[in-house]
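Lecture 7 notes: from sequence to structure.

We start with a single chain of 267 residues. Read the sequence below before looking at the structure.
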Amino acid sequence: MTAVIAEGDVLLDIADGIATLRMNRPDVANGMSVDFLRSFYEAMMACHRRAGLRALIISGNGKHFSGGGDVRDFASKGPDLPDYLREVTSWLQVSVSAMMRLPAPVIAAVHGFAAGGGGFGLVCAADFVIAAESARFLPAATTVGMAPDAGTTVTLSRIVGIRKAMEIVLTNPRLTAAEAHALGIVTEVVPDAQLGKRALDLACTLAAGAPKAIAATKRLMWDGVGRSVEDALPDEARTVAELSGTADAREGLAAVIERREPTFTGR
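Now the structure, written as tokens:
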């Protein structure tokens, strides 16, 4: 296996036409900051540049796939948070677009939590999702006074339907792997110990297919979503940045850090 990116917030290995991208901020549940997302995008671009790539597996080091945005990083920005979130969402946008436009299929191998616009959003943007039995899925954006991003406002409704998507993003249930599978968010659920092997087995199956046919079919499937995710991304980014400047957003971030229920005032 060749280590294309051997250190930092995102690690990338490629062997036999299969890339493995591992989010590598386990101390903050692979929380997403500007630096992290810049590294994620660079890894995605390395995959785009790799001739002969047949499949990509995305996973997270540590206890969780990704908890979404790095709430401590966000909270530390104070009144500058809206400007910072504009940069965060810009990097998240191009990363999600790069996932969807990668000719090779993308497999998300999920353990622990896949939460927030980042974690849950990446799941919705993947072509396949293999989940450990203990995995949990939570959009969570409105719980911190913000709105979904990473294209979730489009992808989730296409996956589960508008009524169920509305329920999920506004009430934020903590979905089990089995519940997410029943809704179509997850492709397959496996015992925790088999997650890595099953994701690799699927990647090998895809790698044995006709690459041009698979790439073209993937493109057609995502284009067939209707309103493209890329069309939704700028609107999501503006909304997230605007909401991040509210008192409710500051309260939501503080509540997460302090491990308490938030008290929202509508300001």
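Residues 81-101 form the longest helix (21 residues). Keep this in mind for problem set 3.
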